[in-house]
Recover the amino acids of this structure.
């Protein structure tokens, strides 16, 4: 408002004046538009910001008063998605998060806001909301192609599965590392960018592991890292790579002779580690002959069970042992086989009566020529033999007596010679040395050795005189005496002329 003073004066003398105060009130007119404090607002928020959070507050002022100066805020020309994600308070100018933000969906949002007063005047500004990435997405593994079955003879390097791995996050949060879990005969190879392939790393063996659940694990580079996994189920198909194996290295059995035809001898059993038809085992006998006849005529083996049967009654006196081979063959193509040795011992039984070998049996109506006849009056112990047999017995007895007499004569001559060697000739001096008595057995082998010391005095004519010896002194060692200057030799008596 404005205050004025109005003064009025007349024309008299003195002049008279009068004053009046005038207050002029200026009424407002909507002649000012609202003005934002910033032409552009910029804000950065993480994508995991909670719903309802205030992102930014916009402000605008209007110089007018009253209704003309009241400002209200609103969005101006924004997308439908932006209107769903954000809300604007028309009174305060606060922009709030209405839904969860997703960096992977849209990383930046540009909003236009408007400030309008009570009249028709308004102003606009731009709000740029940048959404920053957060590691909120796990790696995704998609199997493009995969095998369900694989043969155990597949060579190493065979492709089993093709995978595509991706992470929707950015930078380090989106970097994925893949690996296989556990000790499996497979490895993971990167083929192109985010594509991987699973290949066999070594030979497979169905007999050890028949099925595999290959787990592929993917982890990103976030902090903390997020990871996911996919499982590939793979069944290993059998190949006939195992021959039948017998439960024992060799078999042996005992069978009493005179057995019944078709008697069970024993059962052989072999197992095959393969599967299905490749593991089906059949048994057969290897070729052989017994006493010129085929082995198959003596024994047989049941093809399915491996039971061994005797086809005929066996006789210990004819066949005491059967040595045979049983072959086990599987049902693969080509078939694999193995052999085992079977020893069958025939046990003897008392099934034969004694037979008189001599004299032979007399023919019917003939004379028993091998029989010696003895008179009825013969005494007990008398030799029941003919004259020829009697003379043979006497001749054997005579020869035995002569042989015994010869042995005694040889023994006597040897003793006599030994005795004469103990005597010295008459012209010999004192006895030098010590005679040795030998105890001799019948076979002439020296049995004992014992030394005796004797003192003997001889004269020239005492050769045939009786010698007298002093008491024998048995000792283990001979006394040592120093020899004379010219020792007389120990003479051996010569045979008289």
């Amino acid at each position: 408002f404005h205050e004025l003073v109005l003064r009025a004066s007349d024309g008299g003398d003195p002049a008279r004046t009068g004053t009046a105060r005038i207050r002029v009130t200026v009424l407002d007119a909507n002649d000012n538009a609202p003005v934002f404090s910033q032409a552009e607002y910029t804000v950065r928020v993480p994508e995991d910001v909670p719903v309802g959070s205030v992102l930014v507050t916009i402000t605008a002022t209007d110089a007018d008063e009253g209704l003309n100066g009241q400002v209200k805020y609103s969005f101006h020309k924004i997308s439908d998605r932006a209107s769903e994600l954000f809300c604007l308070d028309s009174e305060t100018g606060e922009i709030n998060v209405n839904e969860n933000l997703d960096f992977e969906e849209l990383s930046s949002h540009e909003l236009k806001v408007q400030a309008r007063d009570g009249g028709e005047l308004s102003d606009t500004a731009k709000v740029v909301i940048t959404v920053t990435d957060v590691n909120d997405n796990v790696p995704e593994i998609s199997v493009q192609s995969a095998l369900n079955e694989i043969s155990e003879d597949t060579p190493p390097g065979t492709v089993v599965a093709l995978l595509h791995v991706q992470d929707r996050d950015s930078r380090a949060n989106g970097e994925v590392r893949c690996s296989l879990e556990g000790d499996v005969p497979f490895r993971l190879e990167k083929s192109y960018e985010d594509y991987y392939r699973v290949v066999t790393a070594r030979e497979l063996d169905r007999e050890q592991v028949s099925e595999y659940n290959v787990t592929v694990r993917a982890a990103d580079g976030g902090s903390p890292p997020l990871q996911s996994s996919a499982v590939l189920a793979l069944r290993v198909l059998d190949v006939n790579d195992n021959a039948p194996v017998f439960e024992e290295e060799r078999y042996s059995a005992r069978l009493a002779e005179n057995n019944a035809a078709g008697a069970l001898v024993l059962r052989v059993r072999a197992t095959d580690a393969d599967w299905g038809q490749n593991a089906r085992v059949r048994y057969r006998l290897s070729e052989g002959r017994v006493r010129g006849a085929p082995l198959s005529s003596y024994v047989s083996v049941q093809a399915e069970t491996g039971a061994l049967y005797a086809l005929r009654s066996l006789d210990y006196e004819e066949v005491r042992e059967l040595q045979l081979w049983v072959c086990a063959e599987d049902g693969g193509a080509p078939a694999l086989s193995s052999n085992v040795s079977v020893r069958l011992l025939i046990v003897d039984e008392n099934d034969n009566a004694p037979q008189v070998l001599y004299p032979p049996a007399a023919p019917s109506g003939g004379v028993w020529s091998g029989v010696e006849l003895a008179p009825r009056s013969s005494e007990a112990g008398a030799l029941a033999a003919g004259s020829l047999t009697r003379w043979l017995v006497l001749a054997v007895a005579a020869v035995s007596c002569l042989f015994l007499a010869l042995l005694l004569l040889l023994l006597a001559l040897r003793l006599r010679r030994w005795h004469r060697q103990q005597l010295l000739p008459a012209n010999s001096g004192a006895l030098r040395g010590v005679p040795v008595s030998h105890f001799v057995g019948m076979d002439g082998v020296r049995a004992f050795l014992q030394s005796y010391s004797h003192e003997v005095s001889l004269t020239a004519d005492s050769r045939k005189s009786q010698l007298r010896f002093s008491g024998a002194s048995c000792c283990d060692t001979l006394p040592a005496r120093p020899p004379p200057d010219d020792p007389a030799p120990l003479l051996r008596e010569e045979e008289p002329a």
